[in-house]
Fold each of these.
Amino acid sequence: MIPREIFRQIRRIQITTSRMVTDVFAGQYQSVFKGKGMEFCEVREYQPGDEIRSIDWNVTARMGHPFVKKFIEERELTVMLLLDMSKSSYFGTVNKLKSQLAAEICSVLALSANKNNDKIGLIAFTDRVEKFVPPRKGMRHVLRVIREALYFKPRGTGTDIPGAIEYLNRITRRKTVTFIISDFYAPDFKKPLSISNRRHDIITITITDPKEIALPDIGIVKFDDAESGKSYYVDTSDKETRIRYRENAARKFEDRTKLFRSINVDNINIRTDTPYAEELYKFFRIRERRLR
């Protein structure tokens, strides 16, 4: 039984993101993500302009005049959401936590998949796979995915992206459209991501808080590393410290961008202090143009 307050929160996100899916992403999702291939539909008589290679020679021989095979796109997709629930996701200084923003993005993607009659599944992970929701269709199932993204309480603290990718490859037999939603503060995920991207259509969504990019001048501050449990103090009033922090953050951002580009993985950068709808819409527009 879902507590009333949690149900209200799920319903609020469903209503908000449903409007976004209808108003912003109508038609974009279907044009960007293709089905598994072409599926045989029927045979019909040859018409001028038809491809010669589409002639069904067996039927043509039986009927005494040419017939061609007709195919339709096999549209149904399986969409997987790999959601990072490590401790670093429970951070946010503007509007909402990174984890809350990630859950809303999961909702938008799940509703978009449902609108196009695609299956949607969820793998929630930390330094281990915490929760697996097998891909299915239907609004009832979408609401379960939203609920787990919002309220599942993980046991782990760290981030094991290779482990989550390996689990994805183990439980899926066919190609999927996979969104990995994380801050990507994790090592050694380039090789498994590159290998998996040859089998699946992988899109990474990187969520960042502005305080992870630049430190404010607010004196001596105690920092706690949520994943390792270590604590340390930083004098944010020191200009050199703030410069080094900003340069280090910019370098990490650039290195991560180059990594995704080098293995042909599309990446969407989302910040907690700016509306995420525009960034998602921009991704759909760019990818649609690229596929023309």
Amino acid sequence: MTGLVSDYFFELPQELIASRPAPERDASRMMVIDRASGGISHRMFRDFSSFLREGDQVVLNNTRVLKARLLAKDGRIEIFLLEALGNRRWKCLTRPGRKLRPGAVVPIAGTEAHVLEALPGGERIVEFLAEPDLEKHGHMPVPPYFKRDSDAGDDERYQTVFARHPGSVAAPTAGLHFTPEVLANIPHSFLTLHVGAGTFLPVKAERIEDHVMHEEHFEISGETAQALNAAKRIVAVGTTVARVLESRKENPMEACTGATDIFIYPTYHFRRVGALLTNFHLPCSTLLMLVSAFAGKDLIRGAYAEAVKERYRFFSYGDCMLIL
């Protein structure tokens, strides 16, 4: 079945884009959607555990966001780290590109960046004289729609409380609502998917099936695989978790590492995920298409219209939606 990307456009008032987090992680609103009845109710994230039932397993992404944005002292040159290639080499985005052609050398982040290669997509292969200290010199890569630079508050709040394995350049945002207290009271396990810069990229194709999905690396431990196999229902926290689980074809689940470029859109049939907690996503994004595949395009369209009407906060620092 074909579809147009424009089918996933919706009008969003600028003031509903959350550029700062709620005062407390678990203080967000939570829209609850019942797929069977089509019912929509309005709750708080603090009610999340009340929707779990015996045999549920909540699965979260414990990737850690890198302080991947490096700036020269004058602020005129930016190197955005995308992927570590080993031997102090990184695949990067650079700005401005015309100043960072192959052969360029830039003092940055307490070291020097040597541009080795320009890739067809505009990225650069950069080799650093010494591995940059990201905690000291890097900046948190907050989304561009915040329309502001990151600050000290983002160092904490744009990171989940269970972040463990460094490698992402964007947060798994559905996980930002959880506190240690919430986790202590629910059955849960972790997998790791390192979120890439592709999460920021718009879908440029007119037809959905013409879009090429970016690839992201993941790991599922033996302990998590065992918990998933024993679960009566899997509750995925975020689209990153859903994508990893749906990319695995083996049954029962096994410990594994790999990469996935799975692109989920209507009329995909979910095989593993039984419930999904997710934030409100950008118009025409692959994330909105995944959610529409899970709940149904018409139901999600109506739910987003309801969210705008009820003044929900959208995107990374916004409110959330629980789809049952």
Amino acid sequence: MHRDQVRHPSDRFQFLIERNRWIAKGLMIYGLQVHIGMRDGDHAIAMMNGMLHFLPHVLALSASSPF
């Protein structure tokens, strides 16, 4: 329930809550960001092309949130 969630104590989020009231209080935002070092741009493109096969699986995992 959104009333039970712990909110980040930042001024920015507090500003959003004050400005948007119930909309901001009900936000349940989760994220994951991964940084991977690559040798150069060509290597990065090759890795991205290799990972395209798994993109539907990653999308399916992100859509199965219990919230």
Amino acid sequence: MPARRAVVLLSGGLDSATAFAVARAEGFDPYALSFDYGQRHARELDSARRLAAALGAKEHLVLRLDLRAIGGSALTADVPVPKGRSHEAMATGIPVTYVPARNTIFLSHALAWAEVLESQDIFVGVNALDYSGYPDCRPEYIGAFERMANLATRAGVEGRSRLTIHAPLIKLTKAQIVQRGAELGVDFGLTWSCYEPQPDGLACGACDSCLLRRKGFSEAGLRDPVPTAR
């Protein structure tokens, strides 16, 4: 039987890289989809391109969307990125690094490409345990989008197929994600997580994403191959 096609959202971070590796391990032909949306940490796109090549993407599509025109986030507007927050603080409230409706926008484009590819599967590396409190990373959201997707597509309406949104990391800790990625051979040295790269190109080591990444590698008992400024 030929492998099934799957669209995989690939940001360049360790979560999306691990989700991509899971899709491949489950026998899918992965098609990588990344976004140049005006993010402050556009450095992640270089990682996405290298990861797509290293992990064997059948195709890698990078779409340009200027979400800076909307703003409303520290990642797309002139708003300071929070630094040095405690894990307790990160677990409460929605931080200014939340990009309004980002996963809805990304998944909608993934859905469109899946229709063209005649794919019934989309993989996304969202996580609802060690994360920054984003509302569009919760299981309820993923389930709601999947229901909507099957109402919104030609294949769904005609009853020819049913689309599934796979979120294989959603109930894992960051340490478990690191362990899973390592088991699947992900080269974490190719990944990028920092929200605010330093002028010398190093990760800042203090933003929420850097701190969660550090926590994951520490608890997994592994060394992070990506150097940081701190």
